[in-house]
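Section 3.1: Structural characterization of target chains.
Under the original work plan, the team committed to producing a structural model for every single-chain target entering the pipeline before any wet-lab resources were allocated. The record below documents one such target. The sequence was received from the expression subgroup and is listed exactly as submitted; it comprises 392 residues.
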Amino acid sequence: MLSVDVAQQTKRSWIEIDEARLAANYRLVREAAGAETDVLAVIKANAYGHGLEQCSVALGRAGTSWLGVADAADGIKVRSALDAAGIARDTTSVLVMCGVFADEVSGIREHNLTPVIWTAGHAELLRGSGARVHVEIDTGMSRQGVRPGAPLDALLRSIAAAGCELDGVMTHFHSAEIVASEQTREQRTRFEAAVEQMRNSGLKPRCIHAGSSSTIDIGEDFDWLEKLAQRANARAMVRSGIALYGYVLPACGAASRIRAELKPVMTWKTRVLDIREIAAGESIGYNATFTARQSMRIALLPVGYADGLRRELSSTNDRSGGWVMLRGADGTLQRAPIIGRISMNLTTIDVTAIDGVHVGDEAILLGDGVTADDHARLAETIAYEILCGVRA
């Protein structure tokens, strides 16, 4: 199912989400994970810019048993969307991945959300709620999570005292895309110790999860994770985010298992606002960074860096920039280079070589022929930031 923004006719740029591709990417990830490992579908950051409610329902229908969001507010939106779609609460759990505040507890309880916690304060907030919780272990990310040893013992006592149920334990690898990473080996060792410490405490998690889309793409940690879960009489789980939307970080030191088969889910479009002829010697855009060396035909697009089209995609006479895709008179999609500096709400493109371009024609900013990886390479960032930055 291809979904088009309902306000497309009045918006100057819009995104289209291919739900069939999203479901296919999920099935590819699910198959790569193997029968012994569950997959948590990460939909935080508005499903990486793709639309929180829509993607949660599409993934629920595709069969995911876990969805991951950043906070309780998004968890409530997801649960409400799943309820409205008739997806039962006992088939799809929602993990709130970035802790809990006091004013979120009632929503967690009412909407059957599962928070990730790592402090005694988190557990105390949840006292009497009967919440299922996942504990995050800090094995080297130094971001969120409890350290093994005495801090973990204290947290486990707090969980028991608060009457919460320990449903899962997790950690996050900071270099999962690097094969045979010494840092990942160290993190695995620390995580193993934490899981053993939990077993000795008498609190037994139902699932144990670690890893990301890169873990699935490389396939390096599955045996380790499955054996660790088996020792704890728990179910193994891996978390996938970016791969669901058609991208994954390049594997360092190994061949990718799924990268070539993933399909981008988002198409970001705009429309041609104006077309004009430029004579040789005329400059285009702020600071005259591009000057026409011959007569040109340029088109104006009503989108710019305020909409998420990165300024680094600008071009000069000495440096090529990004491009968009336009359909020419022969019906084929063709590249139209970005010319000059991208402005706040306007971008100029070169259509000299493309016959049949008219005002009102659709231009593809992201999609067939131009990907978030293309934008990321030029902007010296990652596809995650490009996708999350789209503000159509």
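The first strand starts at residue 2 and ends at 4.
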